[in-house]
Design goal:
Blueprint: H1 14-28, H2 30-38, E1 48-52, H3 59-66, H4 79-86, E2 91-99, E3 103-110, E4 115-119, E5 122-126, E6 146-147, H5 152-164, H6 166-171, E7 172-177, E8 183-187, E9 190-194, H7 200-204, H8 206-215, E10 220-224, E11 232-235
Parallel strand pairs: 1-3, 6-7, 9-10
Antiparallel strand pairs: 2-3, 4-5, 7-8, 8-9, 10-11
Length: 236
Protein backbone atom coordinates (compact mmCIF):
# COMPACT_ATOMS: atom_id res chain seq x y z
CA UNK A 1 0.00 0.00 0.00
CA UNK A 2 1.44 3.27 -1.06
CA UNK A 3 0.76 6.54 0.63
CA UNK A 4 0.27 9.46 -1.79
CA UNK A 5 2.62 12.32 -1.48
CA UNK A 6 1.13 15.32 0.29
CA UNK A 7 1.12 18.59 -1.60
CA UNK A 8 1.75 21.70 0.43
CA UNK A 9 -0.33 24.78 -0.57
CA UNK A 10 1.65 27.27 -2.57
CA UNK A 11 2.60 30.22 -0.49
CA UNK A 12 2.39 33.68 -2.03
CA UNK A 13 5.68 35.35 -2.36
CA UNK A 14 6.06 38.31 0.00
CA UNK A 15 7.02 40.55 -2.91
CA UNK A 16 3.59 39.94 -4.52
CA UNK A 17 1.83 41.14 -1.38
CA UNK A 18 4.00 44.23 -1.32
CA UNK A 19 3.14 45.02 -4.94
CA UNK A 20 -0.61 44.63 -4.31
CA UNK A 21 -0.63 46.94 -1.29
CA UNK A 22 -0.34 50.25 -3.24
CA UNK A 23 -3.11 49.15 -5.61
CA UNK A 24 -5.43 48.40 -2.67
CA UNK A 25 -4.66 51.77 -1.09
CA UNK A 26 -5.32 53.56 -4.40
CA UNK A 27 -8.72 51.87 -4.78
CA UNK A 28 -9.73 52.74 -1.24
CA UNK A 29 -8.73 56.38 -1.76
CA UNK A 30 -10.49 56.69 -5.17
CA UNK A 31 -13.51 58.63 -3.80
CA UNK A 32 -11.03 61.28 -2.60
CA UNK A 33 -8.66 61.60 -5.57
CA UNK A 34 -10.98 60.42 -8.36
CA UNK A 35 -13.10 63.56 -8.75
CA UNK A 36 -10.00 65.75 -8.55
CA UNK A 37 -8.38 63.93 -11.43
CA UNK A 38 -11.57 63.75 -13.50
CA UNK A 39 -12.25 67.46 -12.96
CA UNK A 40 -9.16 68.24 -14.98
CA UNK A 41 -10.49 66.49 -18.07
CA UNK A 42 -12.21 68.66 -20.71
CA UNK A 43 -14.59 65.75 -21.38
CA UNK A 44 -16.38 66.51 -18.10
CA UNK A 45 -16.82 70.28 -18.56
CA UNK A 46 -20.34 71.57 -17.84
CA UNK A 47 -22.25 71.88 -21.10
CA UNK A 48 -25.84 71.70 -19.89
CA UNK A 49 -27.83 72.56 -16.73
CA UNK A 50 -31.30 71.11 -16.13
CA UNK A 51 -33.60 72.62 -13.50
CA UNK A 52 -36.30 70.40 -11.98
CA UNK A 53 -39.10 71.18 -9.53
CA UNK A 54 -39.62 74.91 -10.04
CA UNK A 55 -43.02 76.53 -10.33
CA UNK A 56 -42.55 80.10 -9.21
CA UNK A 57 -38.77 80.61 -9.27
CA UNK A 58 -37.61 81.61 -12.74
CA UNK A 59 -34.93 79.28 -14.16
CA UNK A 60 -32.92 82.39 -15.07
CA UNK A 61 -32.69 83.29 -11.36
CA UNK A 62 -31.29 79.84 -10.62
CA UNK A 63 -28.72 80.04 -13.42
CA UNK A 64 -27.58 83.49 -12.25
CA UNK A 65 -27.14 82.24 -8.70
CA UNK A 66 -25.21 79.19 -9.84
CA UNK A 67 -22.89 81.30 -12.02
CA UNK A 68 -21.54 78.18 -13.72
CA UNK A 69 -19.96 78.29 -17.18
CA UNK A 70 -18.15 75.84 -19.42
CA UNK A 71 -14.89 76.28 -17.51
CA UNK A 72 -16.43 74.34 -14.62
CA UNK A 73 -16.43 70.58 -14.33
CA UNK A 74 -19.35 68.41 -13.28
CA UNK A 75 -16.92 66.89 -10.76
CA UNK A 76 -16.44 70.19 -8.92
CA UNK A 77 -17.97 70.11 -5.39
CA UNK A 78 -21.73 70.63 -5.46
CA UNK A 79 -22.14 71.89 -1.88
CA UNK A 80 -21.11 75.53 -2.58
CA UNK A 81 -23.55 75.68 -5.49
CA UNK A 82 -26.38 74.25 -3.38
CA UNK A 83 -25.64 76.84 -0.68
CA UNK A 84 -25.99 79.65 -3.24
CA UNK A 85 -29.42 78.37 -4.22
CA UNK A 86 -30.77 77.90 -0.71
CA UNK A 87 -29.95 81.55 -0.05
CA UNK A 88 -32.90 82.38 -2.29
CA UNK A 89 -35.95 83.21 -0.09
CA UNK A 90 -38.22 81.01 -2.18
CA UNK A 91 -36.01 77.91 -2.31
CA UNK A 92 -36.35 75.57 0.64
CA UNK A 93 -33.78 73.02 -0.50
CA UNK A 94 -31.60 72.30 -3.51
CA UNK A 95 -29.75 69.18 -4.61
CA UNK A 96 -27.34 68.96 -7.53
CA UNK A 97 -26.48 65.67 -9.18
CA UNK A 98 -24.35 64.78 -12.19
CA UNK A 99 -25.42 63.26 -15.46
CA UNK A 100 -22.22 62.36 -17.20
CA UNK A 101 -20.42 63.52 -19.15
CA UNK A 102 -21.43 67.20 -18.98
CA UNK A 103 -24.83 67.83 -17.36
CA UNK A 104 -25.76 69.16 -13.92
CA UNK A 105 -29.31 68.37 -12.78
CA UNK A 106 -30.59 70.90 -10.23
CA UNK A 107 -33.49 69.57 -8.12
CA UNK A 108 -35.39 72.36 -6.36
CA UNK A 109 -37.93 72.25 -3.53
CA UNK A 110 -39.72 75.59 -3.36
CA UNK A 111 -41.35 77.33 -0.44
CA UNK A 112 -44.84 77.50 -1.91
CA UNK A 113 -47.29 80.30 -1.10
CA UNK A 114 -50.17 79.26 1.14
CA UNK A 115 -51.98 82.62 1.26
CA UNK A 116 -52.26 86.00 -0.39
CA UNK A 117 -52.28 89.00 1.94
CA UNK A 118 -53.50 92.46 0.84
CA UNK A 119 -50.94 95.27 0.93
CA UNK A 120 -50.73 98.82 -0.36
CA UNK A 121 -49.04 97.54 -3.52
CA UNK A 122 -51.52 94.71 -4.07
CA UNK A 123 -51.67 91.08 -2.97
CA UNK A 124 -48.49 89.56 -1.52
CA UNK A 125 -47.68 85.85 -1.29
CA UNK A 126 -46.62 84.26 2.03
CA UNK A 127 -45.49 80.76 2.84
CA UNK A 128 -46.46 78.72 5.90
CA UNK A 129 -43.53 80.13 7.90
CA UNK A 130 -44.89 83.65 7.49
CA UNK A 131 -42.12 84.58 5.05
CA UNK A 132 -42.94 87.04 2.28
CA UNK A 133 -42.12 85.38 -1.05
CA UNK A 134 -40.84 87.20 -4.14
CA UNK A 135 -43.86 86.10 -6.16
CA UNK A 136 -45.92 88.66 -8.07
CA UNK A 137 -49.53 87.37 -8.26
CA UNK A 138 -50.25 89.89 -11.02
CA UNK A 139 -47.76 88.07 -13.26
CA UNK A 140 -47.89 84.50 -11.96
CA UNK A 141 -51.07 82.63 -11.10
CA UNK A 142 -51.14 81.83 -7.37
CA UNK A 143 -53.97 79.53 -6.34
CA UNK A 144 -54.19 80.38 -2.64
CA UNK A 145 -56.81 81.80 -0.26
CA UNK A 146 -56.81 85.47 0.71
CA UNK A 147 -55.83 86.12 4.32
CA UNK A 148 -56.96 89.47 5.73
CA UNK A 149 -53.56 90.20 7.28
CA UNK A 150 -50.28 88.43 7.99
CA UNK A 151 -51.04 85.97 10.81
CA UNK A 152 -48.32 83.38 11.42
CA UNK A 153 -50.65 80.96 13.22
CA UNK A 154 -53.16 80.98 10.38
CA UNK A 155 -50.41 80.72 7.78
CA UNK A 156 -49.08 77.66 9.59
CA UNK A 157 -52.61 76.22 9.70
CA UNK A 158 -53.02 76.76 5.96
CA UNK A 159 -49.71 75.02 5.34
CA UNK A 160 -50.88 72.00 7.34
CA UNK A 161 -54.24 71.94 5.53
CA UNK A 162 -52.57 72.11 2.12
CA UNK A 163 -50.22 69.26 3.07
CA UNK A 164 -52.68 66.98 4.93
CA UNK A 165 -56.03 67.86 3.34
CA UNK A 166 -55.37 69.34 -0.12
CA UNK A 167 -58.98 68.98 -1.27
CA UNK A 168 -60.18 71.06 1.69
CA UNK A 169 -57.43 73.60 1.06
CA UNK A 170 -58.64 74.11 -2.51
CA UNK A 171 -62.10 74.97 -1.16
CA UNK A 172 -60.89 77.71 1.22
CA UNK A 173 -61.10 81.10 -0.47
CA UNK A 174 -60.95 83.60 2.40
CA UNK A 175 -59.66 83.63 5.96
CA UNK A 176 -59.44 86.13 8.78
CA UNK A 177 -59.22 86.35 12.55
CA UNK A 178 -62.12 87.96 14.41
CA UNK A 179 -61.62 90.52 17.22
CA UNK A 180 -62.09 87.87 19.92
CA UNK A 181 -59.48 85.60 18.33
CA UNK A 182 -61.90 83.26 16.62
CA UNK A 183 -61.36 82.29 13.01
CA UNK A 184 -63.69 83.02 10.13
CA UNK A 185 -63.21 81.41 6.77
CA UNK A 186 -65.14 80.76 3.61
CA UNK A 187 -65.10 77.12 2.54
CA UNK A 188 -66.53 76.85 -0.96
CA UNK A 189 -69.42 79.32 -0.65
CA UNK A 190 -70.18 78.66 3.03
CA UNK A 191 -68.94 80.83 5.92
CA UNK A 192 -67.34 78.80 8.72
CA UNK A 193 -66.67 79.90 12.30
CA UNK A 194 -63.96 78.14 14.31
CA UNK A 195 -62.12 78.48 17.61
CA UNK A 196 -58.78 80.27 17.73
CA UNK A 197 -56.90 76.97 18.07
CA UNK A 198 -58.67 75.15 15.22
CA UNK A 199 -56.61 72.42 13.56
CA UNK A 200 -56.78 70.26 10.44
CA UNK A 201 -58.60 67.38 12.13
CA UNK A 202 -61.32 69.72 13.35
CA UNK A 203 -61.76 71.28 9.91
CA UNK A 204 -62.10 67.84 8.34
CA UNK A 205 -65.25 67.33 10.44
CA UNK A 206 -66.94 69.69 7.99
CA UNK A 207 -66.93 67.06 5.23
CA UNK A 208 -69.49 64.56 6.60
CA UNK A 209 -71.79 67.42 7.66
CA UNK A 210 -71.75 69.13 4.27
CA UNK A 211 -72.21 65.77 2.54
CA UNK A 212 -75.26 64.99 4.73
CA UNK A 213 -76.78 68.41 4.08
CA UNK A 214 -76.28 67.98 0.34
CA UNK A 215 -78.06 64.60 0.42
CA UNK A 216 -81.01 66.25 2.13
CA UNK A 217 -80.86 69.17 -0.30
CA UNK A 218 -80.29 71.65 2.53
CA UNK A 219 -78.05 74.69 2.10
CA UNK A 220 -76.21 76.00 5.15
CA UNK A 221 -75.95 79.73 5.72
CA UNK A 222 -73.11 79.11 8.20
CA UNK A 223 -71.25 76.24 9.81
CA UNK A 224 -70.00 76.63 13.37
CA UNK A 225 -67.06 74.64 14.75
CA UNK A 226 -66.56 76.63 17.93
CA UNK A 227 -68.27 74.12 20.21
CA UNK A 228 -66.45 70.97 21.17
CA UNK A 229 -67.49 67.77 19.35
CA UNK A 230 -70.25 69.60 17.49
CA UNK A 231 -70.75 71.08 14.06
CA UNK A 232 -73.69 73.45 14.11
CA UNK A 233 -75.33 74.15 10.78
CA UNK A 234 -77.41 77.28 10.46
CA UNK A 235 -79.61 76.79 7.44
CA UNK A 236 -80.70 79.30 4.85
Amino acid sequence: MTVPDTVEPRRRAPWRLLLGLPVAIALLAAPWWGPRVLAELAFFRVRRIEVVGTRYVAPGDILRRLNVDTTRSVWDPAEPLEARLTGHPEIRSARIRRRLPGTLVVEIVESLPVALVPAATGLQAYDERGVLLPVDPSRVEVDAPVLARRDTALLRLLGEVRRDAPTLYQRISELRRLPRGEVWMKVASTPVLAASNVNVQRLLELDPVTADLARRQLRPAELDLRYRDQVIARLQ
